[in-house]
Amino acid sequence: MRHRKTSKVNKDAWLATYADMITLILVFFVLLYAMSSIDQEKYKMLVQAFSTDPDTLEQLTQTEEGKEGGADDGLAGENIALDEIKDLDDLYKYLSQYVEENGLSDSVEVAKGKNMVYVRFTSNLFFQPDRAVLKEGGVEILDQVGPALAKVEVYVQMIRIDGHTAESPPGPGGVSDRDLSTERANAVLKYLETYHIKDPSKLYAVGYGRYRPVAPNDTEENRAKNRRVEILISKTDIVQQEIDAAEQSKQNVEE
Q1: How far apart are CA 234 and CA 169, in angstroms?
Q2: Which residues lie across from 150 on neighbouring strands?
Q3: What is 82-242's CATH number?
Q4: CA torsion angle for 73, 76, 78, 83 (degrees, to 10)?
């Protein structure tokens, strides 16, 4: 009598499915982690993750921690000297370095855009209340900032100085916020023109008075933030470009 062959059931087969699922979950979480801040190095590690490299996740974590510890736009451990300034990126690094080394972070803000560097100073660094005469401390700061601006003067079209005041509580006083902000901007401009910038045509001074606040004028601390001097260093002068375009268009029509 022929006996049927019975197939043996592999009771451990589920382990293969389970292992695949765990691997997929690991890859999924690595993907989520990498997508939070993808760069070339992380992409290489992500590729390694698909090869089930057991050290990849740990390496990825260590790399991210190292970057966080040395953040600040690549400034950490990258001191730059005045003579090394060649473009706006170098200018930004130099000014940021100067602010940090001199403990001015609470009074000076440095930012960088695509074609510009922006520096904001609280006005008490430069001026006494209701006055537009540069303080000795303000002159010292401009003697550090001015030579750095001179290094990029050939590459930029505009160095604009903006003066701002704050809306003060009602009370007696004959100081015009428009006049004061303009006079302060001009004081900074004239100093830079006299001692540091060779081409005066690239310098602008604008007084905005109290009409462009960066904080509510509800406390003295916020009003101090609004009393400020800003320097904008830009590769382009959009206003002049528009004027030139309008003049050219006018000439074309007349011809």
Answers
A1: 35
A2: none
A3: 3.30.1330.60
A4: 70
Rounded to two decimals, the pTM is 0.66
Given the structure tokens 């190292």, which residue do they identify? 66
State whether residue 158 is helix, strand or coil: strand
Report the C-alpha gap between 62 and 56 in whole angstroms: 10
For residue 240, the tally of other CB atoms under 10 A from its CB is 13
- pLDDT, averaged across the chain: 80
Select the highest-mean-pLDDT range: 5-14, 23-32, 94-103: 94-103
Cα–Cα distance between 43 and 37 in angstroms, integer? 10
The residue assigned the tokens 């960066």 is 214
d(CA 66, CA 86): 28
What residue spans define the domains of the chain? 14-69, 82-242
Q: Provide the pLDDT for residue 19.
A: 74
Alpha-carbon distance of 65 to 57, in angstroms, equals: 12
Tokens standing for residue 60: 């990825």
* DSSP code string of 55-122: THHHHHHHHHHHHHHT-TTTTTT----GGG--SHHHHHHHHHHHHHHTT-TTTEEEEE-SSEEEEEEE
Percentage of residues in the chain having pLDDT higher than 90 = 54
DSSP-assigned letter for residue 233: E
Secondary structure of 118-139 as H, E, C letters: EEEEEHHHCCCCCCCCCCHHHH
